Amino acid sequence: MATPVLMPKQGQSVETCIITRWFKKVGDKVSPGDLLYAYETDKAAFELESPADGTLLEIFFNEGAEVPVLVNVAVIGQPGESISAFAPAGSPSASEKSSETLPEHSAKKQETEAQETHTKLSGDSRIRISPRAKNLAEANKLNYSTISGTGPNGRIVVSDIEKALAGGATTDIGPKDISGEFTETPVSNVRKLIARAMHSSLQNSAQLTHHMSADARRLLAARKTIKEGLSAGREKQDITLNDMICWCVIRALRKFPEANSHFLGETVRIFNKVHLGIAVDTPRGLMVPAVKNAEDMDLITLSRKLKAVADSCRKGNIDPELIKSTSASFTISNLGNYGVEMFTPVINLPQAAILGVCTITSRPADLGNNTFGFVPYLGLSLTYDHRAIDGGPATLFLKEIKEQIENFEY
Length: 410
Known about the structure:
Elements: E1 3-6, E2 16-22, E3 29-30, E4 35-40, E5 45-49, E6 54-59, E7 66-68, E8 72-77, H1 92-100, H2 107-116, E9 118-122, E10 125-129, H3 131-139, H4 158-165, E11 176-177, E12 183-184, H5 189-203, E13 207-215, H6 217-232, H7 241-255, E14 261-263, E15 268-270, E16 276-278, E17 280-282, E18 285-287, E19 290-291, H8 299-315, E20 330-334, E21 353-368, E22 371-385, H9 391-406
Parallel strand pairs: 16-20, 20-21
Antiparallel strand pairs: 1-8, 2-4, 2-7, 3-6, 4-5, 6-8, 9-10, 11-12, 13-22, 14-15, 16-19, 17-18, 21-22
Helix pairs in contact: 3-4, 7-9
């Protein structure tokens, strides 16, 4: 009996994934463990192995297609087995491919194809495109004259248009100069998914940001000690400023557990442990892995764990369970290295808050005994969901982070 190949579900918040590459083609023999296709969410890339022995009988979605989770993307079985029962309902790729790959051996078939194919003359080039593909291209104002069709006789089908709209089609236009005054570049698949998640976060929560600064002299002194210790061989772990800030935030969350929570609409889930999310910039975009039970770790262990998850994100082998929005109870996004003095981080729903860490700037301050000088201050930006936390508790929580930083001891 034929075996369906499903698009896996990567976390509760992931509704669709994008197929980025097929490693096998229809007709190939496959065995368990063979890579079938690669796919990605807005945060990570994955590869799916064959679930069974047999022949790849059909592929319902081409590269670049955005596929709902738990939907059939392919079928594995024995040659000659029926695959009609596995075709996803309403799938443009499946419906077009089923009609476009049958042998053209009858006059009726030829007549039908003639009716379903639009041609356009442009110089010496003849463009063949199905009606559905043509309508989709025109609705999105896409110039399909340079797209290479993958249908019979080079006909452009819906999947080709979808791939072009997703920025993955092979054309000769690239960034398009429309009027000589500007260029247009297709939005990447990952950017589309990130945009959708950010828009959803802002649409479906009541976000407000408070800003505060903390005296960073103790952090900088500790960092100097650590660097000197590393050079002298006394220190084995390179604890960064960000590691120290995370340590301070964890201490503050223990005092203000309402910030260590998820807002679920009818209930607020307050966590007994701190599962710290840390924003990591990667070549594929921003990823937010979680360090589970972070409050149980000493500073050295926390530093190692933070480095490990960040490295896994950049290498693309992070555990998908750690990058689900529900995996972390609170998130930190540090833009200090980029010189950002103030910003408004966006909450990773359903988390109730996120801390933005800004750069250190020197400001005049009273040093005591009628002495004034310049003091390094670290900018802190707390965005919280006003549905879950009121302004007073949010301010007290931010103040506690400030005090933890200013009283840091190494």
